[in-house]
């Protein structure tokens, strides 16, 4: 795919949604961090239901740590893998208090040192909470990048690096949100909704569907 196509793709995505946002509900960087940790192999809708119960009761590292693993589990038991997530979150809260004064660090290295925080989670927090140029590649973004030809790659890291290189600079900060929303609602895994797609004429996918 050439640069002109990529530019037009992101111009249209921006035109349709000038200020894209994550669908995870949060009001502070810490709440976002916890929501993203909980969202692994879970839906944003499911996470939001759990955090709607949790955050009014505890939404600081100190308060969540005070719940303990069992106490936290009661709030998040509707989410997949909640036992291991509860352990990770409690330990993360302890480290945030002990090492970072209860604040969410703004570096990838410090974030990835927290339990339950991998590269993708760190990138989401850096980009969404702190507005840094970071590209979190989930299954939706991996699929869209490969299927459209925007940034094809065999691994998540390869796609991430290509997106950072190829996405036009003026659209890079919000590209993560546009791509994930496009993958979630239009360029879906089993049957892409090509007939409803704003970038169908620019997409290089060979097996386009006639309509949704």
Give me the CATH fold name of the largest domain. Answer: Endonuclease III, domain 1
Q: How many β-strand runs?
A: 0
The portion of residues assigned to helices is 55-70%
The number of domains = 2
Detail the poorly predicted runs. Answer: none
- How far apart the termini lie comes to 25 Å
Instruction: Quickly name the level 1 CATH class of the largest domain.
Output: Mainly Alpha
How large is the count of helical segments? 10
Oligomer: single chain
Helix/strand/pairing class, anyone? mainly alpha
Overall pLDDT metric:
94
- What is the overall shape? elongated
Largest sheet: none
What letter string, H or E per element, gives the SSE order? HHHHHHHHHH
CATH architecture of the largest domain: Orthogonal Bundle
Binding site for [4Fe-4S] cluster: 187, 194, 197, 203
Family: Belongs to the Nth/MutY family.
Domain HhH-GPD: 38-185
Keywords: 4Fe-4S, DNA damage, DNA repair, DNA-binding, Endonuclease, Glycosidase, Hydrolase, Iron, Iron-sulfur, Lyase, Metal-binding, Nuclease
């Amino acid at each position: 795919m050439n640069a002109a196509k990529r530019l037009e793709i992101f111009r249209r995505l921006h035109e349709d949604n000038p200020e894209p946002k994550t669908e995870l509900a949060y009001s502070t960087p810490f709440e976002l961090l916890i929501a993203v940790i909980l969202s692994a192999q879970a839906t944003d809708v499911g996470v939001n239901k759990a955090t709607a119960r949790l955050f009014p009761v505890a939404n600081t590292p100190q308060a969540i740590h005070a719940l303990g693993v069992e106490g936290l589990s009661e709030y998040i038991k509707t989410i997949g893998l909640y036992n291991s997530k509860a352990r990770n979150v409690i330990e993360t809260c302890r480290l945030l208090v002990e090492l970072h004064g209860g604040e969410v660090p703004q570096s990838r290295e410090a974030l990835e040192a927290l339990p339950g925080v991998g590269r993708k989670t760190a990138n989401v927090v850096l980009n969404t909470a702190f507005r840094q140029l970071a590209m979190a590649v989930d299954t939706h973004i991996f699929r869209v990048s490969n299927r459209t030809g925007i940034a094809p790659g065999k691994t998540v890291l390869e796609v991430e690096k290509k997106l950072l290189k190829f996405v036009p600079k003026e659209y890079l900060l919000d590209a993560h949100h546009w791509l994930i929303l496009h993958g979630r609602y239009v360029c879906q895994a089993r049957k892409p909704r090509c007939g409803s797609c704003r970038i169908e004429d620019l997409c290089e996918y060979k097996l386009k569907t006639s309509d949704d």
